[in-house]
Each structure stands twice: as C-alpha cells, then as structure tokens.
Amino acid sequence: TLFRSPWVERPNEPVTTKRARLVYESRKRGMLENGILLSLFAKEHLGSMSEAQLSMYDRMINEPSNDWDIYYWATGAKPPPAVFDNEVLDLLKEFTRNRNMEQRLRQPDLEYLQEAG
To answer: Angle between the 87-97 and 32-45 helix axes, to the nearest 10 degrees?
Structure first.
C-alpha cells in the first residue's frame, strides 16, 4: 500500500502558499481519475475559496488514506463520513456531475496560474 503521512492542519500557512500547495496536491494523486477530477476542480474553485474552505479541501484530499474514497464521495457512490460532509464536498459533487458536459480527459495546463497572479 501507498504510505501517506497523517494529515496535519497548518494554521500559520499563508493563504497563497496553501493555494499553491493544494494545486500541486490536487494534481499529484494516487490515481489518474482523481488527478484529473481534483486538478480541474482546483482550477475552477481554489482561487475563490475562503480560508475555511481551503482548510476543508486540504483535509478532504489529504486525510483519507484511500483516494478511491474521495472518488466515491465525489461521484455519490458512497456517503462521506460526517467530517467531510461539508460545503466543499458539495461543490466537488456538483463539479463532478459535469452538467456542462465538458471533456475532462486530462489535467489542465498551469498557465492559468500566471494569468490569475
């Protein structure tokens, strides 16, 4: 199995650092499906998330030891534990529904980060 360090909240981490770290961690997953899903979600939502929402997202993608759990919660295949059943998971579930029927075959290029900065 893949070893993952236990999730630890970083209360003194600057918001810009946290966003950059979460972009990276959204892309570098243990499975391709979540790498695509979470990197596209991060592109769409991380820039507008509050600090509290960023912390919820951080915990959601980094605390579970099994990436399949995140995928199942996002797709609605399994109910999430209460600690992850929050507004950020609701955003991810809505994003996962892909109501605009976008092609989501690969992770986004990172140029959007320079455009935002």
So the answer is: 110
Are the beta carbons of 55 and 9 closer than 8 angstroms? Answer: yes
Where b means 16+ CB within 10 Å and e means fewer, 102-114 reads eebeebbeeeeee
Whats the size of the chain, residue-wise? 117
Rounded-to-5 percentages of helix, strand, coil across the chain: 60, 0, 40
Q: One-letter amino acid identity for 2?
A: L
Q: What are the backbone dihedrals phi and psi of residue 59, each rounded to the nearest 5 degrees, phi first?
A: -65, -45
Which residues, in sequence order, are CB contacts of 54 under 8 Å at separation 6+? 15, 18, 19, 22, 46
Q: What is the mean pLDDT of residues 97-110?
A: 88
Asked if 38 contacts 27 with a C-beta cutoff of 8 angstroms, the reply is: yes
pLDDT tens-digit readout, 27-82: 998 899 999 999 999 999 999 999 999 999 999 999 998 899 999 999 999 999 99
Query: What pLDDT does residue 47 have?
Result: 95
